[in-house]
Structure formats: C-alpha cells, structure tokens
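Subject: design request, 126 residues
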C-alpha cells in the first residue's frame, strides 16, 4: 500500500520541485551571463514579490540565469516586507531594487544596466 502511494506521489513531488527551481537548473546547464564577476559580486538586489505573480517568476529566472544573488520578500506573507514595499511606493508587483534602482517592469536591458551600476546612494525608478 505504502509502496503504491510513494510511486504515485514521488513523480508529482519531483515535478513540483523542478518547476520551482527551474531558473537555477537552467542557469547551471547554460550559463549565459551578460555580467562581469565584479558586477555580480557587488550587486545588492532585493525582490518584492508574491507566489502567484508570473512577472515575479520572470525576474527570479533571469537573476538565477545571470548568477546574481538576491533577497526575496513575499509581501503577502511578511508584514515587515509589505511595509518596506509600501515605503518604496508600492504600486504593484514585482518591485526589484537593484543597487538603489527600482525596477517595476521586466526588461532585461534595464536589469543588466542596473546590475552594472555600483552606485547605491540614490534611488531612481524605471
């Protein structure tokens, strides 16, 4: 009985885990980073997102593909993250803070440009 259940549940679980980690898997097998190692090392990236947001997934996949470490805060589940998000203007998700540049739309060129800027003093919005 247990063996039959495991045979049914294990493939489903495997598919779910692969789907959740697809960006990291893709980055491992095809590293197509357009960034220098210095840009990746100095990048300070924070993603304000939710689980259900498709554009948030695009941001995650891109950052994983580029090999950029980032902090992610789910504004539906974390009250402190929601307050930080609202302090940034909170007009929709996702909001990506890259080296002080706030990005609200998924445009790879803008993300690359922000990652290559090392100025963390002023915040601007794109």
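Subject: RE: design request

Done. Sequence follows.
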């Amino acid at each position: 009985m247990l063996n039959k259940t495991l045979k049914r549940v294990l493939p489903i679980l495997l598919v779910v885990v692969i789907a959740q980690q697809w960006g990291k898997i893709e980055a491992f097998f095809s590293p197509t980073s357009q960034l220098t190692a210095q840009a990746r090392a100095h990048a300070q990236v924070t993603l304000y997102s939710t689980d259900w947001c498709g554009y948030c997934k695009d941001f995650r996949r891109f950052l994983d593909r580029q090999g950029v470490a980032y902090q992610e805060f789910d504004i539906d589940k974390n009250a402190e993250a929601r307050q930080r998000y609202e302090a940034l203007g909170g007009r929709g998700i996702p909001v990506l803070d890259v080296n002080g540049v706030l990005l609200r739309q998924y445009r790879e060129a803008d993300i690359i440009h922000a990652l290559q800027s090392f100025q963390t003093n002023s915040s601007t919005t794109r």
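The beta strands are 45-49, 71-74, 95-98, 101-103, 124-125.
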